[in-house]
Structure formats: structure tokens, C-alpha cells
């Protein structure tokens, strides 16, 4: 005799179908595994996000990169080192968050890994001075453009 109350019950929450369909088929298994490693509140946040954002986040998590973390270890295949999330403050308030490649978790200088969308100074590859903050993130204190 089967218990109808458990029919269709999933013991592990699955990736919402619309998000999973946006993931390249060759990456779906890794995306499912990354989804299952997420805390419930992060699953909920991703489920309510745009599919593009959710797919990017799952792809990052699948390779061990957490876009919400202040620091990520870079694979040797990408040159090694670390990527630190850094806030670039705007003179009139606000700011833009970007990734800076650093040699170690406590480094106070690095190289900009993003092309700024809104920041008034800096470009991909620019040298950046950092002020580490107690929450593990950092603020840009000096940007010297390359070239």
C-alpha cells in the first residue's frame, strides 16, 4: 500500500526548470550539484532572480567560485592567486563593486579583473591599492591605470 501524501514529494529541492533550461546542457549536472550545496535562503534568492543572473551564479558555484564571497581562490589554470571583491567609491556617493586579483588574502595591492561599468577611474588591468575591511571585503584607495 502506498502513501499518497508523499507522492511527488522531493527530498532535495531541484533547480527551477526555467533556470535549468537556461544552463548549457553540458553544465546541468554541475549546476544541479551547486544548487543542492546552497543554503535555502540563497536558493530562494536565486529562484526569484533573473534567469541570466541565476545561471551565472550557478556556473560560478559549480567551479568553486562564490560571487557573493569577499575572496575566491583562483585556479592554477587561470594563473593562481586570489580574487578579492573591492568597492570603488564614487566622489558623489555610491560605488561599484569589482574583482581585483591579489597574490594573497592579506595583499594590499592588486590588478583590476573587471572593466568598470560606472567607476570614473580604472580600467581592466589597472593597479589598485586596497584597504581591507573587517567584513573581508576591501575598498579601493588608489587606482593607477595601465598604459
Strand content of the residues, in percent? 15-25%
Rg measurement, Å: 19 Å
**Average pLDDT rating:** 82
Tally of DSSP β-strands: 6
Helix content: 10-25%
Number of domains: 2
Structure classification: alpha+beta
Distance between the termini: 75 Å
Count of DSSP-assigned helices: 4
Structure description:
The chain is α+β, with helices and mostly antiparallel strands. The chain has 2 domains: 12-62, no CATH class; 71-144, no CATH class. It is 24% helix and 24% strand. The protein contains 4 helices and 6 strands. It has helices spanning 17-22, 28-37, 40-47, 51-62; strands at residues 71-73, 82-89, 95-102, 109-112, 127-132, 138-144. The chain has a 5-stranded mixed β-barrel with strand order 2-3-4-5-6. The longest helix is centred in the middle third of the chain and has 12 residues, at 51-62. It starts with 16 loop residues before the first helix and ends with a strand.
Main attributes?
147 residues; disordered N terminus; alpha+beta
Quick rundown:
This protein has helices at residues 17-22, 28-37, 40-47, 51-62; strands spanning 71-73, 82-89, 95-102, 109-112, 127-132, 138-144.
